[in-house]
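DM from R.C. (forwarded with permission)

"hey, sorry to bug you on a friday — could you get me a structure for this? deadline for the figure draft is monday and I only need the backbone to look sensible"
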Amino acid sequence: MNILQVNLVLILFYALFFLCIKSKTTRIIFLIFTTIQFAILPGFRGVTVGVDTWRYERSFNWLKEINNFNDFLLYDSDFGFKLVQRIILFFTDNFNYMLIVFSLFIFISLGIFIYRYSKSIFLSYILFICLGFFDHSFNLQRQIIALSIVLFSYSFILKKKPKHFFMVVLCASLFHSSAIVFLPAYYFAHMKWKKHTVILIPSIFMLFFIFKNQIGEIFTILYYDEATKMLNSYTSTSGLGGMALLILIILIIGFVIYNPLRHNDIENKVLFNLLVISFFIQTISSFSYLFTRLNLFYFIFIILYIPNVIYNLDKSKVNIKRRYLKVAQFTAKSAVAIIVITYYLTQIKIDGADIIPYYFFWE
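My reply, with the result:
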């Protein structure tokens, strides 16, 4: 059994042990255990674990040698990331301490987000693992830090506080500039579903899909320094793409079960709208993998949306009697968990992230 399988099995064990008892205390204990475990694996990893770990170590060591403020400003582009590294260097020059600090921040932020907003913390964590977000924390470190900061903007979307929202997203962009892609999310999230919107959205999708190559080239040139190389090496497929199809299916099921047009639930509308944008971005990823990375800022909200839809099964047109509702919800959660776990276990047999074999930094 490899480390990723062990990680998943332990989460299932924690859920069985703690979440069978319905209480706030056991939920918090589950969150604490999960957060610590999640932080340990990427935080204590050896430099050979993950595709880009050695690059982060090299960057950390280079930053260690910089003493001139002008050189500090010119070195790298993500000011927040290098500033926090510099602060860590005041206390230690051990690269692994930096990994531990960032891992703790990422997974404490995630724990707070799930605890506050998820209708099923167990299913949200299972989705986080099985849809690849956990594995990304080994490689896309700066982007996952930025994503963790973006999670705090969700409350300001719900509370309709645009200034606070923009401040959080701009702060996230200091750690990875790709977070800028989430700036329009505030307006998309509050988009009202009227007749003209229902006509407009498919029309925009058709334009996105028709001109995906041109849009992809523009964004790739803006995002990468070596754009020509990236245009050649990151091309994906010519079709819609499996992940885009998955998002579309989830949106259709969610629309049928808990229709945002019929039910005045701001959280459901916000999550639905964010996943609609996620679908659009993912369709362009058939041109370039870059857009799969950019889409993480929107796609992450699927870990809230699916539990939210299942929680509201009684809102569908199918009349589910109250005495059967809990059974239906449990069955739906179990089915989703089994499907995504099966998918994940299949995927990690072909490890594209170089996480396996896993080594701790002291090995």
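R.C.: lifesaver. The chain has a mean pLDDT of 86.
me: no worries. The two ends are 19 Å apart (CA to CA).
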